[in-house]
Specification:
Blueprint lengths: L5 E2 L1 H17 L1 H5 L11 H18 L5 H15 L2 H17 L6 E2 H18 L8 H16 L5 H22 L1 H6 L4 H17 L10 H15 L13 E9 L11 H9 L2 E8 L3 E8 L2 H9 L2 E10 H25 L3 E9 L2 H9 L4 E4 L6 H11 L1 E7 L6 H10 L4 E3 L5 H11 L6 H11 L4 E7 L4 E3 L2 E3 L4 E5 L2 E6 L4 H12 L6 E6 L5 H14 L4 E6 L7 E5 L1
Parallel strand pairs: 7-8, 7-9, 9-10, 16-17
Antiparallel strand pairs: 1-2, 3-5, 3-6, 4-5, 11-14, 11-18, 12-13, 14-15, 16-18
Length: 562
């Protein structure tokens, strides 16, 4: 095998996009590694969406300098990060990019340094790092890269050592985290990282990488690149490359064809002619988008490799003048709309799923309710804060898997933001009802709402999606399971949701319990909730019940005890 002493921007772009594809293709495999057999285990989905955002930012970056591409990938991962696994992945790439910001190419040593930077940054991002997780995998992988780079200048050799160490570390995660061994799985986030590193190795070792980019996706990518070159605040005279040029070539066809197609050769020549370069090909067609000062030369270059099927050239300087006028008109319209919109001093941003649950939050003082059927990204949270128009904001995640994305939003938002670490919908509603004061300060509200969390117990009933043993319970796929403050404490055969809810309630109440609030979801009815109330009164006739149509998916019954 040929020694690869340097990684160029071309290889780097392939690595990032191959990783995004690999995660997409393995998302369900990763999801099934979730410790709890609940239907919303979504580590694979979250890592896939996070990496897809990083790859999109990389593709849309107009600067082809490798360090700039790495920074763009990092930014995309950060803004698109979903779930704690996605945020940790973004921190790995943040550290990775930080080590190579000034690099035009990467040596084996640079690659090892970047991986070491990724491990260091990821560990720093987690308040209490836990071994047996993705953190263990990146640390061991980076350490192997560092050792190997002292002995070899071959980037492929270093990447192979990195992957081997990552796979070994992943296999060891059940020995480091007892709950993984009890359930019989490896860490899901660690598995996702191994898939990323495997994709990197596949690209560097020269193996065939298949990407799934259809015409619609290509058009969206071209539009994003084109829009990056035409912005309302840019002077037309400041545009370096004025012609947006697109060609499509039927490879090895026509009378002008005189050169065999080689992706790297084809790409590198075009890279010297402009920026915002995008080259996508299969065995028959190559498609090009580039901003250049010489569209004729781009067209001429394409004819050497085949027959032209499509040519499109736009004068971006003319388009820029139009965009500037449109941007000014939009600013005036936005200013007028802002003047009519009532000012908000303190916004409350929360996440929820289900029409009834969302309405309860809205009626309890929430400014923006983000749908949480899919974990919101850092960008989603930042946008919610911005769209509220508030001078300050509180974020109620209502899910511990959103904590890290919320923390990242605090760092990015333009106004002061605090996170009230609500782990459940029930905690979020309690924090609003008992702790929120619209006239209070940001700090006072955060403190009062956090204190209110101790006044509520949270319960949830759903159906197991696989067989497992956890907390001494033998659980089978299809069993109704009850979670008490996040821990599975009840398992009932034959999907008996009512029986599971009754048994769960019995474990939640004590002599001090007074109020039980039941939220029935899409897979339950008001009659189901009323039967639960009847059974609850048998357990304790002094209990008071409130029943709401929550409309939440996946969890037929949510309940709180106060």
């Amino acid at each position: 095998m040929e020694v690869v002493t340097t990684i160029t921007n071309v290889e780097f772009g392939k690595m990032i996009n191959a990783a995004a594809d690999a995660l997409k293709n393995n998302a369900e495999k990763i999801n099934k590694l979730n410790v709890f057999p609940v239907p919303d285990g979504d580590t694979g989905t979250n890592m896939t969406l996070s990496m897809a955002s990083g790859a999109e930012y990389e593709r849309n970056e107009t600067d082809t300098h490798l360090g700039a591409l790495a920074q763009a990938t990092s930014k995309g991962l950060l803004m698109g990060a979903r779930g704690n696994s996605g945020v940790i992945l973004s921190q790995i790439f943040r550290g990775f990019a930080g080590k190579i910001a000034d690099k035009e190419t990467l040596t084996a040593r640079d690659l090892a340094d970047a991986l070491m930077g990724g491990a260091e940054t990821a560990y720093k991002a987690v308040m209490k790092p836990t071994e047996g997780t993705i953190l263990t995998v990146i640390r061991e992988a980076a350490a192997a890269a560092n050792r190997t780079a002292k002995e070899s200048d071959d980037a492929v050799v270093v990447m192979k050592a990195t992957l081997d160490a990552a796979e070994k570390a992943l296999a060891s995660t059940p020995d480091l985290l007892p709950v993984l061994k009890e359930v019989g799985v490896v860490d899901s986030g660690g598995q996702g990282l191994v898939i990323v590193l495997e994709a990197f190795y596949t690209v560097l070792s020269g193996e065939e990488v298949t990407t799934e980019i259809d015409n619609a996706a290509l058009d969206a990518m071209v539009m994003a690149l084109h829009n990056a070159g035409v912005q309302g605040d840019l002077n037309p005279e400041d545009i370096t490359y004025g012609y947006c040029t697109e060609i499509m070539v039927d490879i090895a066809k026509g009378t002008t064809y005189d050169q065999e197609f080689d992706y790297d050769t084809f790409y590198q020549h075009l890279a010297e002619m402009g920026d915002s370069l995008l080259v996508i090909n299969d065995d028959e067609v190559v498609k090009v988008h580039v901003h250049t000062e010489d569209p004729g030369e781009v067209i001429n270059w394409g004819t050497h490799f085949g027959s032209l099927r499509k040519v499109k050239v736009d004068n971006m300087r003319d388009q820029q003048a139009e965009a500037a006028a449109a941007a000014e008109a939009q600013r005036e319209a936005d200013a007028a709309a802002a003047a009519e919109k009532p000012a908000v001093d303190l916004a409350v941003i929360t996440t929820a799923a289900g029409a009834g649950i969302k309405e309860l939050f809205a009626s309890s003082g929430t400014t923006v309710v983000i749908d949480s059927e899919q974990a919101p990204s850092t960008q989603d949270l930042v946008n919610a804060v911005k769209d509220s128009g508030a001078k300050e904001a509180l974020i109620l995640p209502n899910d511990s898997n959103i904590f890290m994305a919320a923390d990242q939003a605090v760092e990015i938002a333009d106004v002061p933001v605090k996170v009230v670490r609500t782990r459940t919908i029930q905690q979020g509603l309690t924090a609003l009802v008992l702790g929120y004061n619209p006239e209070g300060t940001l700090d006072d509200n955060a403190e009062a709402m956090t204190a209110a969390l101790g006044d509520v117990k949270s319960g949830a009933v759903t159906t197991s999606v696989r067989d497992t043993t956890l907390n001494g319970l033998e659980i089978h796929a299809g069993d109704a399971i009850g979670l008490f403050d996040g821990e599975i404490v009840v398992a009932v055969p034959d999907a008996d949701i009512h029986q599971a809810a009754v048994e769960l309630l019995g474990k939640m109440i004590d002599d001090d319990s007074e109020l039980v609030t039941v939220y029935y979801g899409q897979e339950a009815t008001e009659d189901d909730a009323n039967k639960l109330e009847e059974a609850g009164l048998v357990l304790d006739e002094d209990l008071e019940f409130e029943i709401h149509d929550g409309g939440q998916p996946l969890y037929p019954i949510l309940m709180s005890v106060e």
